[in-house]
Amino acid sequence: MSETPQALGAPVVRREGRDKVTGTARYAAEHPESGCLYGWIVPATVASGRVTAIRTADALAVPGVHTVLTHDNAPRLEEPDDPILAVLQDDRVPHRGWPVALVLAETLESARAGAAAVHVEYATTGHDVVLTGDHPGLYTPEEANGGHPGLRQRGDAMRAFEAAPVCIDAVYTMRALHNHPMEPHASTARWADGHLTVHDSSQGSTAVRNSLAQALGIDRDHVTVLSEHVGGGFGSKGTPRPQSVLAAMAALHTGLPVRLVLPRRYMPAIVGHRAPTLQRVRLGAGRDGVLSSVSHEIVTHTSRIKEFVEQAAVPARIMYASPHSRTEHRVAALDVPSPSWMRAPGEASGMYALESAMDELACALGIDPVELRLRNEPPVEPDSGRPFSSRNLAACLTEGARRFGWSGRDPQPATREEGPWLLGTGVASATYPVLVSKSTASAQAAPDGSYRVGVNATDIGTGARTVLAQIAASVLGTSPENVGVDIGSSDLPTASVAGGSSGTASWGSAVHKAATALVRRIAAHTGPIPPEGISVTADTGEETAQEPPYSRHAFGAHFAEVAVDSLTGEVRVRRLLGVYAAGRILNSRTARSQFIGGMVMGLGMALTESSTMDPAFGDFTESDLASYHVPSCADVPDIQAHWIDEDDPHLNPMGSKGIGEIGIVGTAAAIGNAVRHATGARLRALPLTPDRLLPYLP
């Protein structure tokens, strides 16, 4: 069968869209279970210490309350693969909000009332929750996330910096950020004949199955985890979370199905966050703008439960040519909830600081910010010396400038006014690595001429079902409508999580390989296809085990136009435009949606989103969507996403790169640079809220 080119790249409508808008699609907390109990967590109200007593009599007296689980009566777990899953196993309180009890009742209302009636006594110890640049507990980890070295040096960055004719030395700060997916974290667990079935709101049900099996001390074949529809994740559902373990433990203890949905106000303490960062960037350059020294130092926090170090200095290792470089992460373990993956981790926060510093350098030199970036394009990856599989950042910058109308920009700040509004424009570059993980897929041909592929992918709102059908159809020589897709069950062929913009490349490579093998099997088959069909299974273990000889990244350019109210300090983003080099675009409709969604998240990072750590109580004060402000459609009237044609044969059979997160990476810096251009004030702390801007306005 010949490949059907129209199957890839076409704006195919998402096949589950109607199910979602009509309510047919069921999420983790919507699967009916007869006799189901509802769970409600009792969170710790101290930041550090131990539980000395839990009094449950009043809770058990609440009508409908069935059981209260505590560390005294909860099932014992084996050591889990993630320490945050060791819940109700002892009396420790590592941070405020840590689950210390679970109330189970016949109704959600009874569970909540019962949880309020549980009385907990503590022995507290002093807590430390505030990150500072000179914290005595700071250390340099051996590795940051992703296996990146905590410290990398080339040449002598400090000496080159001191000798440079033009220098930028600036500190950029970001408070903690939280994911708030539309669907909260939820699990529905049921045991039957020694087999555990869990409907879980997760970005990867294979990982949840494996973690539950390990924690419960049972064989993986005795666990099925289903994540058929997931209402957003953004990293917070990228690893198993405590609600799945608690639901499974409670169902085992009671012998009844258990449903546990985290209230939104509990999520900041339980499901991870982007840790705050203090980032010092030092750039040294000649008067022609060519960089001679790049230094990027990160200070961040982790919890006392486990080490999690966001790799925010890593982008500086690959972005711009410089003979001298120093990039370092330092971290302090505090009495805080464990940070975790969030929206382009590393790149989003690190590139905000780096691209802001590049704009400061352009201003100091009097060089156009686009031109400055073009002058510092590296011929190979600076950190490793490997060639880029493709690097079309220059094309993104050039095309973006053309579409945005950048050439007519007056470089002088605070010169454009429209009544009380001060107008400005800004630009920033973006990058995100190409990540691919081993996955397995099956492909089947049916006697009626239809096909079906199976892979335990997870669709967190990205349109995975649709794109996987397109990939299979392109190999099978049929239309995507003729290909059924099964995803979202750990009983399907094992696949990687939906994270790191790696899903389509990982799952798609396995689907492509299985479909290719099926084509060969059909060609070798004589006679009609038998009633049971013809099936093959393929995995990408061999391909993903090989270390690529290339530096593989997606790149992009972000442009922003803002209006700043000189009377109130309010920032309005009038235009956002992004141009991306992300390999072959497999579905233009879903890709544009992904790019635009990422840019909106970047807008939130720039203007509205942050969480404040209360030093006295040791928790995040913004614990709901009334206080943690996410952007809405009205916050940016004109947002455009474009891409360039990029043919990169060094990626995967589809020639695709990840697109889910690169839209976030440069947006915050572009907006911040535009605010500086509008006002003349350079603010180095996000978000750019009115109270921060007002002192600098005329």
Question: Could you characterize the architecture of this molecule?
Answer:
25% of the residues lie in helices and 25% in strands. The chain is an alpha+beta fold and 698 residues long. The strands form six sheets. It has a seven-stranded mixed β-sheet, with helices on both faces. Strands 9-17-16-15-10-27 form a six-stranded mixed β-sheet, sandwiched between helices. A five-stranded mixed β-sheet has the order 18-19-24-25-26, with helices on both faces. Helix 5 links the parallel strand 12 (195-200) and strand 13. Helix 5 (205-216) packs across helix 6 (242-254), helix 8 runs parallel beside helix 16 (667-679) and helix 14 (588-607) crosses helix 16. It is globular. Residues 1-5 have low confidence and may be disordered.
